[in-house]
Every structure is written in C-alpha cells, then in structure tokens.
Write a structure and sequence with these properties.
Helix content: 40-55%
Order of helices and strands: HHHEEH
Number of domains: 1
Structural class: mainly alpha
Number of strands: 2
Shape: globular
Largest sheet: 2 strands, antiparallel
Strand content: 5-15%
Distance between the termini: 27 Å
C-alpha cells in the first residue's frame, strides 16, 4: 500500500489534481520514453519546474516508483529503460 502524504494516498492526490489542472508534460512523449538521453533531461527539467502538478507528481513517483519516465524533474528507471538485473544491482553495491 502506498504511503499517505498529507492524509491522502499520493495516487489519489495526483488523480484529483489532474481533474483541475493540466500537467506541463501533457502530450509530450519524451516524458514517458523507455530511454532518456542526458540532453533531453536538460530540456525536460525546466518544463517540470514550471508544472502546476510538480508536487503531486513527485509524491506519486516517490511512492509508486514507476519503472520508467521523467517524473517531477527526475528520471525514473535504468539508463536502458529496463529494470536492472540482480547481478547489476549486486555489482553496484
């Protein structure tokens, strides 16, 4: 179960916020690509920073841990867009 933020599940908070506000990334496929190039992230960050859903998006991403995508100014996922293998995780430790 997702952690509660301000007494409400972050997924519910984001869903409710989306009813009233349009995210700055709306319709921009770069935010949901399986793989992100560094040069794209420098372009996406200012878009996120000015988004009216920045806080809700970040709370959701921290609790739901989406496998890929650019959420609240941060890339979520591995560089290849695929989950890290157990060997890769162990080698990084």
């Amino acid at each position: 179960m997702a952690a509660q933020v301000g007494g409400m599940n972050p997924a519910v908070r984001l869903d409710r916020a989306l009813r009233d506000r349009v995210p700055a990334c709306n319709g921009d496929a770069r935010f949901t690509e399986d793989k992100l190039q560094l040069r794209k992230s420098t372009v996406l960050l200012p878009i996120c920073a000015g988004c009216p859903l920045f806080i809700e998006c970040g709370e959701y991403a921290e609790t739901a841990r989406p496998p890929v995508g650019f959420w609240a100014g941060k890339w979520r996922g591995s560089a290849s867009g695929k989950p890290k293998s157990k060997k890769t995780k162990e080698a990084a430790a």
